[in-house]
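To close the chapter, one final illustration. This time we ask the reader to focus less on the individual chains and more on the assembly as a whole: which components sit near each other, and how the overall shape emerges from the parts.
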Amino acid sequence: MALFKAHYNLEKNSIALVIAIILAASVGGLVEIAPLFTIDETVETTEDMRVYTPLELAGRNIYIREGCYACHSQMIRTLRDEVERYGPYSLAAESQYDHPMLWGSKRTGPDIARLGGKYSDDWHVAHLINPRAVVPSSIMPAYPWLASAPLEVDDLSDHLVALRRLGVPYTEDMIANASQDAAAQANPDSAGAGGVVERYGEATTLRRFSGMPRLTEMDALVAYLQVLGQLTQAPYAAQPADTEVLQ
Amino acid sequence: MIARLTRTERSVAMALAVILLLLGLTMAALGDHDPMAVHGFMALGLGVGLVFAVGSVLEEPSPSPARLQQYYDDPIKVGIVLAMVWGVFAMSIGLWVAALMVWPDATFGQAWSSYGRLRPVHTTGVIFAFGGNALIATSFHVMQRTCRARLADQLSPWFVLVGYNLFCLWAVSGYLMGITQSKEYAEPEWYADILLVIVWVTYLVLYLRTLRRRAEPHIYVANWYYLAFIVVVAMLHIVNAAALPVSWTGAKSYPAFSGVQDAMVQWWYGHNAVAFFMTSGFLGMLYYYLPVRAQRPIFSYRLSILSFWGITFFYLWVGSHHLHYTALPHWVQTLGMTFSVMLLVPSWASAGNALLTLNGAWHRVRDDATLRFMFVAAVFYGLSTFEGSFLAIRPVNALSHYTDWTVGHVHSGALGWLAMVTFGAFYSVVPQIWGRPAMHSSRLVEWHFWLALGGLLTYVFALWNAGITQGLMWRTYNDAGTLNYSFIESMEAMRPYYIARVVGGSLFLAGICVGAANIWLTVRGARNHAADRPLAPQAAE
Ligand code: HEM
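The assembled structure is written out below.
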């Protein structure tokens, strides 16, 4: 066969072989990935989507550092049982500012895409310090050191700058005030509290998340957990009629 | 070993060691409050060690040109030893991680030893450190033997080995300190990613230069697979690792892509790490060591061509089967599913080609545990690809995704295919390159085989059951039309399976420890040179 004959010659030329491999291997990615950046419908437009505050961003980085994503997904699929167990299915818009996304691939623990507001701050603090104090049979690791580790806030503006370069709409104002905003969000009585609401919107929650006066990693992580599923209200409005996609 | 480099090569090695030392010093100085500094000190320490090691023999006379009539096996030896050391380490961590899912407080209360930090140590450790060193070492062996040519030079193989292992060390120690990008199977931070690119390009150039020197007109099939492994992993890595560091003096970076695009890029990378790191390279191994050990030619040359190009083309389309029913557009999911099912054809063509090669050598499979390792590997390659194509079907994935079924599938591939073929290859190559008639003890090879098989089956059956149980519990409704089980009930139901996994993992780990001991005993009694040599004398470089 001519094809095998051609291959017979290809096998004699290492560079041609490498080029053929590159060509064969490029097609799939080009067809499937490139359009995701150009087709507008890929990510829904939402009116109210906001960015993470510096404190929530710091919490998200702790979530990444501790590998919470290895046991928790943040992606509710369009399946009836998932929607009934966890809440409205996840929209692409919800993770549009997530560098990286944390959809996860394994549910050793439950999905937490809609966790925000489900439990009190105290519950989270107690649970993170020792999950078995709250859920006796839990196999989740304990994270007691979070409550004593001071939160590093000095370099948060650099983080916002990096994210803005990648397309997240942080303003000059947000960048300039990043470290103050982080401290103020966990200290609602402080002078800077008004600025946080002004910059990030009315829906931002300001609380002593860890219940302790000192700003710790626990504040940041709980602030992040409490905002999960709350950056936009779009998923809660649109879905109930949308039964076709549920199976 | 260093004295066997030429004097020029030793000077270049010295320069590289100094560069490494300076790089380490810079990183240590710049990243003063950052864990990156620790990685700087590691590079510094390694650099200093290499400066002394090379410096002590710098002025020795150059080795005799007679060496060019022999294959260059020193880096292969080191690669094999490193693979075994990493293997024992990473599988021990795996056992620990498995134990944490039964006894979650077995951590000494330390941050570095919590599940989320140890898990990537295990995955990177087995896939990249154990598997990667095994691939590099065997590729050096296979390319020389099938080309009947000596490696193109003596220094770049060392560059590849040292650089690659520094990458692994940075990766694994980084997770313990909390340095991670969180991208599955690509967790290391930006500076480790850059190091890997440099190492990988050197590896590709070395491979191509050695192929150029071949005394055979044709490039043997095994080399196609190793080449695809090197080339495509480079493509995947460069795209997936694109990231912006927060500052040049710290480890933290933000990946370039976000949300749904990031998900697709990550799984395009992730599944093809499976395809080109964990499959293509190991098929290269299988295509060389299985026929050699069985003393039979490959069953069908044409089937090899079809399966090679099928795998190289189809695999890159299937990443989206990790994202069924998610916010990824439906058309991409459908493409992923379709290509995953088609992928079964070239996959089974490869597995079938390997098994049919054994026709007429079944008595050897029965008597020779080394060949039996490779036989089981081919069978499990066939089983996992069948399972994979099945799991990629949307409604099946609805049940299996997020459950331990995926983990069961992964380990039928990783233990049953990848680790088994590696052990078979090592037991074939170790006696040859250390110049021994056979492994120190064939009884111990038998022991290893049965421990590994027992461990593998226990592990995989436990997790298949776990996953299916979990998936069913999550979607069971009661008569009132509400969900019947809470999440906690499904978690509690996993306990017996997780205990069984600890048992299976212990068996498998015991197996590799027996293997490591056996290899050590074989090496200790070694003569110095491989008995075989290239037929044609090769020109010096
Ligand atoms: C025809 C070949 C194969 C196909 C179509 C396939 C398909 C799949 C599917 C559908 C999943 C589950 C995705 C999810 O629901 O999260 C998966 C996961 C996985 N497979 Fe395979 N598979 C194949 C072969 C293999 C082999 C041979 C190996 C090992 C050497 C392997 C290693 C993995 C790994 C590491 C994951 C884990 C992904 C995660 O962490 O979620 N696969 N594969």
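The longest helix of chain A spans residues 14-38. The pocket of protoporphyrin IX containing FE is lined by residues A 105; B 184, 274, 278-279, 318, 321-322, 340, 343-344, 347, 384-385, 388-389, 391-392, 397, 400-401, 406, 409-410, 413-414, 417-418 (CB under 6 Å). With these observations in hand, you are ready for the problems at the end of the chapter.
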